[in-house]
Fold:
Amino acid sequence: MLAIDKLSRVPIYEQIIEGVQKEILLGLMKPGDQLPSIRELAVNISANPNTVQKAFIELERRGVMVTSPGRGCYVSEDAPEILKMRLKAKLADITELSAELAMGGVKEEEVIEAVKKAFYH
Amino acid sequence: MLAIDKLSRVPIYEQIIEGVQKEILLGLMKPGDQLPSIRELAVNISANPNTVQKAFIELERRGVMVTSPGRGCYVSEDAPEILKMRLKAKLADITELSAELAMGGVKEEEVIEAVKKAFYH
Amino acid sequence: MLAIDKLSRVPIYEQIIEGVQKEILLGLMKPGDQLPSIRELAVNISANPNTVQKAFIELERRGVMVTSPGRGCYVSEDAPEILKMRLKAKLADITELSAELAMGGVKEEEVIEAVKKAFYH
Amino acid sequence: MLAIDKLSRVPIYEQIIEGVQKEILLGLMKPGDQLPSIRELAVNISANPNTVQKAFIELERRGVMVTSPGRGCYVSEDAPEILKMRLKAKLADITELSAELAMGGVKEEEVIEAVKKAFYH
DNA sequence: GTGGTCTAGACCACA
DNA sequence: GTGGTCTAGACCACT
Structure:
């Protein structure tokens, strides 16, 4: 069940996207699994079906799910691979953030420390 | 001179804030230095004065600049220190991003590698 | 045996129609041949009988098959001829698509090349 | 001014996409040009702003336009090139359609004739 | 039941 | 003024 924070500045539809992707990455959902229907999920998180659909459209665009009108939405075969690729692309964000910190005089050790905190936790 | 990308999705006023802070962090502007006037800067980057003012108000709120009504805006004495504090707070972002990568199976070494790229570059 | 892609955005009933017509055009089914029963086909492609029936109704409407209540469905005598007529109507689609390409500056030779690829292949 | 057929089975938002792309391909709109605002266009074609936005989101995803929140939407620099690439990709559709016709016994000359009709018209 | 499209109308942040 | 998000509720085609 997705955790949605309606007060967050992060749009609901993005939270849905992140939530679904996380479930797949964690193996809670596997390729071929059927996702909850748009209406059902909308009720569950008390959001509007249009908002859920917006998230699903983006997930399909990313190749993470396939939707078959009239039948439902399914986790795509390539979903895990695609998501791992997307994650690796985020390493560039780490580099960018680090560069910003480096520019401001933060020591390399401090940054690496911050990274390790995530892994030994 | 600030580099503003008008087609970016990053709000212009944020780009101004970031730009000014960067100049201070790099030592291009020092405490006591006078900033360009709102109208002057607005013309330079062909933006709306209201937009520039919004950025200046936020910079003052952060304690990075002080406004002396009728005389202009100046980099505050504590600006460099304040900005370095703000930077360190971003270490939490690094940890958060790393945790996300860790969850997806990215190896710690890969993340540290990405950090080092920023420092040995 | 019909090949149905349940994840396709093409409605299943259309896939059935296309599949049957293709078999007739290829001569795999001839006028007078009996088609599988609705229930049988539904089981074979694991689809809903209603879906199969919808396809059969349309095939009958097109004059490609005839239903003999209680005895089954058969390929009509005129099926091959009717299907060839329908195919020729698709030449208009080719013209329309070509016009679109022409408008965008694609050379006539390139389009003809694309056509030949289908015939010398 | 875009021509929208509300009775068409083609969704309005797709008609908008096609219409905008056509204007760019024909050179009626050039890179850097500002598109009508979502609300303005919605009024012009008497459609809902949400519908127009759906079209614009897709156009941006294709790299044909860039949108700058608060400022408006602009034809991207690469728009003409991108659209020409997309057109060439449609040559595959021509081949596919031709293959279907070939399978049904349509002569190559007839298909080429249909292509020429689009160019000598 | 499912997803796909559309309308009407609201509120927000940004320029 | 602009675009971005969201809700409520409708109608359609497909299964």
